[in-house]
Amino acid sequence: MSEEEAGAAALPTLLLAVLSPPGTGVRTRQAAKRQEFECEGFADDMERTRDRDGMLRRRLIDLEREMKDIRDRLGTLEREVDILKTEKDVWKNAYNDLHKQDVFHKIIVPSITKHQITELKTTPHNVKALILLDNAPAHPAKEDLVSRDGRIRCMFLPANTTSIIQPMDQGVIQAVKMRYRRHFMQEILCVTLTGEEGDTRAQRTIANLKRYNLKTAIYNLENAWKQVPPSTTANAWNPLLRGHEDMREVFEGFDREVREVKEGPG
């Protein structure tokens, strides 16, 4: 580069130095250094932030794996608990069935046999009995409730016959309970206001509860039963007394099964 070209290239810098106020060049260099230092510090901060972010991401991945392992272990434990509960229910049901079978064979059958022989003067060869039970799932199978000679056995009523063969459950008992509860609450909560200082209703209510005894409960139950309207009882008994429209369908084949049991061995 010639001297003329070098002078032309340095001219802008020279003009800037001449036109700038005193001390501006020093401040410009200091600002540049400070900016360079801040840039280097920012870069370091960004690097550290990226490192921390990477560590957090790796930790998050590790936590997700640990949570997955915990969920898998919990699932395994829940399945094992379900298996244990099922086994417990199986053993419990088996024990209950065996207990009920023992009651049937060791208590019910001997009692029926003794009653028919001693009271009804029936010969041991002619002892027979048919025990009707409600169709509850808690009962053992009817095949297990048969005496050794087959003369005493159990038979289940058809399912869904409660509304037909148990009419008192169809609103009558509930009506009595509601009226009895009303009498009970009146006995306990009704207190007479007096001119005593202070409010003693709570104490007198507790005193009424303490005075409530079996005699009072019987009288209240009697009054509750008397207050049940005849229509409630009639509506409950009509399906059984006058014939339910579904009764024939529900009990279809029941008579035949009873006859088969009666005409069993002997």
Helix content, binned percent: 55-70%
Radius of gyration: 47 Å
Main beta sheet: 2 strands, parallel
Secondary-structure content class? mainly alpha
Give structural notes:
The protein is mainly alpha-helical. Helix content is 69%, strand content 4%. It contains 9 helices and 2 strands. It has helices at residues 3-19, 24-118, 162-165, 172-189, 201-211, 214-226, 230-241, 247-250, 254-262, and strands at residues 129-133, 152-156. The chain has a two-stranded parallel sheet. α4 packs across α6. The chain starts with a helix and ends with a helix. The model is unreliable at 7-12 and 14-19 (pLDDT under 50).
What is this structure's SSE topology?
Blueprint: H1 3-19, H2 24-118, E1 129-133, E2 152-156, H3 162-165, H4 172-189, H5 201-211, H6 214-226, H7 230-241, H8 247-250, H9 254-262
Parallel strand pairs: 1-2
Helix pairs in contact: 4-6
